[in-house]
Amino acid sequence: MGSRQLIARNVREIRLLRKLSQEGLALEAEIDRAYVSKIERSRCNPTVDVLDKLAAALSVKTVRLFDEKQLHPKPPQLPRGRRMKRLSKTKRTRSSLR
Description:
The chain has 98 residues and is mainly alpha-helical. It has a domain at 3-66: lambda repressor-like DNA-binding domains (434 Repressor (Amino-terminal Domain), Orthogonal Bundle). It contains five helices and no strands. The chain has helices at 3-17, 22-29, 33-40, 48-57, 94-97. The longest helix has 15 residues, at 3-17.
């Protein structure tokens, strides 16, 4: 696993454990939310200054962002967007809705 992927995984994992949204982390770290998203998707190379800001906002040392040990074998699932929950698996017809 490369450094970008390691940082991406750790930032996301720690953020979710702290119950922070990307927006919340961005506000705490004083960076753009879209930039947090790019970091978590390994789409950019954050500077040392940005890593320091992220670590401070996450209440960890910067070196923790490079830690190869995972806190959880699989990162927690993100909550789904505003999708409607399916009520049943049976097919509905007009007559059953009346």
